[in-house]
Design a protein that fits this description.
By secondary structure, this protein is of the alpha+beta class. 19% of the residues lie in helices and 34% in strands.
């Protein structure tokens, strides 16, 4: 089970930090890394439905969420 902790800018790219509760692991990646073949399929399935919220800044660390 995953949970988005925050997002932030890494250069011109949006980075996402998620917690994997089953493995007690924090994973940080940029959105373009999701296209890699070795990107975890279950994590990609978790992120895709939330992609619009990520791009709108819902979890952005500055707190500038736009409703």
């Amino acid at each position: 089970m995953y949970h988005i902790m925050l997002t932030f800018q890494r250069g011109l790219k949006t980075a996402v930090q998620v917690m994997n509760f089953h493995r007690e692991q924090i994973i940080t990646f940029t959105l373009d890394e999701m296209e890699n073949e070795d990107f975890p399929k279950d994590l990609k399935e978790y992120i895709l439905p939330r992609l619009d919220d990520i791009k709108e800044g819902k979890w952005h660390y500055t707190g500038e969420h736009k409703k």
